[in-house]
Amino acid sequence: MKKLLAALLLTASLVSPALAQSDEAGKLRLMTFGGEAQLKSTQDAVARFNQKYPNVEVEIGVDPISGGWGDFVSRVLQQYNAGEQYDVYHTAVETLQSFAARDLFVPLDDYIAAGDFSDFDPKLFDLTKYKGKTYFIPSTWNNIMVNYNRALFAEAGIETPSKTWTWDEFAAVAEKLTKRDANGNVTQFGYEVPNFFFGLMPWFLSNGTSPVTADWSASNMTDPKVAETLQYLYDLIHTKKVSPVPGQEGIENQFFAGQIAMISRGHWIVQNAISSKLDMDIAVQPGKLSNDTVIGFGAYGISAKAQNVKLAEALVTELLSYETQVAEGDLGGAVPGRKSAAETENFLKFPPSAPLYYETLPTTHAVPSPANFQEVDQIFMRYFQAVMANEMTIPDAVAKADQELTRSFERIKRVTQ
Amino acid sequence: MQTRSMQTREARKWVDRAIIAVLLLMGIAMLMPFFWLFSMSFRPAAEAYKMPPSFFPPSFDLTNYQTVLDSSVPFLRIYWNSLYVAVLVTIGQLVTCTLAAFAYARLRFPGRDSLFFVMLIGLMFPAQVTILPIYLGYAKLGLLNNPLGLVLMGLTSSFGVFMLRQFLRSQPKELEEAALMDGAGYFKIFWRISLPQLSPALGALAIITFTGAWNSYFQPRALIESQASMTLPIAMDLLRGYMSQGNLSVVMAAMSMAILPVVLLFLVAQRMVIEGVTFSGIRA
Amino acid sequence: MRAGYVFVLPSIVLYAAFVLAPVAITIILSFTYYDISFGADWVGFENYVRFLTEPRSLEIFWNTLRFAFLAVTFNVAVGLILALALNRAMPKFLLYFFRLAFFLPVIISAAFVAVVWSYFYSFDFGVLNYYLQQIGIPAVPWLSSSRFAMTSIVIMDVWKNTGFFMIILIAALQGVPKPIMDAASMDGASPWRRFSRITLPFISPVLFFCIVFASIGALQVFESIMILTGGGPGDSTRSLSIYLVDEAFGSFELGYAAAVSVIMMILVLIITIIQIVGSRRWVRE
Known about the structure:
The complex is a heterotrimer of chains A (417), B (284) and C (285). In chain A, a hairpin with a 2-residue loop joins strand 4 (129-130) and strand 5 (133-134). With 417 residues, chain A is of the alpha/beta class. Chain A is built from 18 helices and 14 strands. Chain A has two domains: 23-143 and 296-365, D-Maltodextrin-Binding Protein, domain 2; 145-294 and 368-416, Periplasmic binding protein-like II (D-Maltodextrin-Binding Protein, domain 2, 3-Layer(aba) Sandwich). In chain A, the strands form three sheets. In chain A, strands 1, 2, 3, 6, 12, 13 and 14 form a seven-stranded mixed β-sheet that branches. In chain A, strands 8-9-10-7-11 form a five-stranded mixed β-sheet. In chain A, strands 4-5 form a two-stranded antiparallel sheet. In chain A, helix 2 (36-52) runs antiparallel to helix 14 (322-331) and helix 3 (68-81) runs parallel beside helix 4. In chain A, 45% of the residues lie in helices and 17% in strands. Chain C folds into two domains: 1-56 and 241-276, no CATH class; 57-114 and 144-237, MetI-like (MetI-like fold, Orthogonal Bundle). Chain C is 73% helix and 3% strand. Chain C contains twelve helices and two strands, in the order αββααααααααααα.
């Protein structure tokens, strides 16, 4: 009888997929971000995790970041304060300093050394370090590219942008792509000057500057190159009139409808471009001093209060597995951090220049993410919008923004020191 | 004399017609945003913002609705959560606010007016001020990520108490006084006499409370993180996607679906709402 | 005697737990520097001093008052005009249509129609500007200029809320005794005279309620502004409540945000008291 049972069990194990099932039991809480598509791919990854750990229950929380990353940090800090923290967090580069400065996460250096992460670009790991330790593992990333409508380019007889195109060439192209009706009202814009901090950063980086210093510790608004960049963008809107005034709803839909020819966005635009059947491709950021652009990325961290760190690590391993990464690449929300997952046929199919994402990675700079990043973002954007709406002159705005940023960096020292 | 009054009657008729015509135009203008929302929900994303604008969708394309239903967002579950919260909050407010309004309007007890004043001051505190302490308290009680938490915090309202009290005060109180003389208990008076008097106002309060809970966004967003406990306005955020970069036409389809029950409820109950708000009582 | 307490108990307990206690905590927090992971440090009036010396606060404070004044005036005035216009005999289907049209915005979350409003107001791609340009009027920067942004927000706010006041005022108008009105018309009183001498005094308590209620709501305005401009361009449409949410959840300045909310509560209280005192001159007892 026993033999029969053993034989049955043996056949059963042969028939069922060769999964090394763990009988470890427990509960894990995972907090992630994004829209329903990202949530779905996370749920799928958790389902795969549960095949290996059938007795571990994973509870998922989600924040669509509709209120910006500062809101997310507030939420996480509240969770910790209330003892309601999750075990594993999916967050973004913006938040890393705020969290690391408060000792909320465990260092992952040993786990990374032992794991299979050689496929990830080392640059991404460099960006997650805080005081010499790595607290986060990059998942997917986004850099800002110029997305352009190929049909409109062909129609205007404009060549594919080169990998070294300049600000002047870009402005000329944008002018050619702008159409006006008999009354002088614009019917098709060449470009859209972005209305979000992350999207504006490439213009500063390609001019070798940034609104804050390179070590993210002080304001850099008084750098003449900041004013120069603002002037260039202002001219695109008000002098050359090739871009709508920032702050209007549905700009991406205008791009999909062929009413804007070029737009600065990340990989998140790709899926909607496909579903809108838009003939789109990507080009590098136009350069003044360089063609550098900005990068932002998602990253997983494990709470310092997690009960079972080993189990949490196993979940992170699954969340960063090749399979999950390929699925996230297919979703089109961001570029997979695992390079092999960005080399699948599906990923490279659209846009035609998809390899450009990884090619430009070495010349990207992380979006400024000091512990007061949301305040920096808000202060900068407030003055940016005032300038672009003709409410304030550039020298005036630069000086006032500088004062406010300086005060903000002063205040945040209470937390970082 | 006869002709003059006929003339004025004729003139008044024309004035009435002109006023109604202006009202009609305004009414159509008022409904325009809703109309546009429905119209956009039937267009593919690339069509939605095309210039020149067109009032009617080129075809009744249901793709956006299909996308909503096919998405990983469990719409039925979320509808249920919204319904659960809105119904329980409505019932709760009807009970607590009527009881309190009865006491403030009809009974005498020491400190009555100061208590009522304290309650009134509650109108002055916006949700943004109270949310953080509530979050911390809920964490201790295990009410985060739980629709029950949303119900509890909505069970009473200063507005409800205020409105019902004013309404009751406008009603004759002789019946109650007579009943009291006959030795009826307070609860019996409340149940038999005051409650029936209040019924039109209760209808109005019910609609206002139900739609308020159904539309509530700020508090659920702070207190709910799990998809299984979400209410509709929060699920809209999820559909709008990361940093609201998602496909707007799909969001519009979802919003149309979220609005529909409210519109239907209003159409069914509109007699109650309108006549219920007829509380000449605020004149007190 | 004690029965009263039993009846008010449920609402008072809930109210104390969900409103009074949080407000008390907020008042205490306003005197601290509070970091949610490091706890609170008593700083006295520092947060209040910061608000009073902050260059931005005057504009934000002024915006709040300006919005409240415009929104209350138009919400109540349009509501009253609509109520007067609807207070006449008309076919039933028209009555139903008007009720639906004017009251629907009140009960449907503005967040659901926000996208549409932003689209209407869009400068380069907006529906409004498209039709303005068709008839030869230059495009209006509805939301992208400080000259127009506040007006545009008030327009949406009136669209959203005026129906509420309309309904309440219709109810009040129906309470005006018909015999007095008929007698006045018999005596040949002009419509304006009938309105100012009979209708207005009769509905004045309700009108007063509307003004107070609208003011409290308008001074706390959050949604209408957040949806359309988020406070911009610059600070030109930022209200106190938007400012305090930015500070609390964006900058993690919880103590400072608490101080801003206390200032906001005091402002509401003062305005309400002024209105109550002022009302003795015109509201019929």
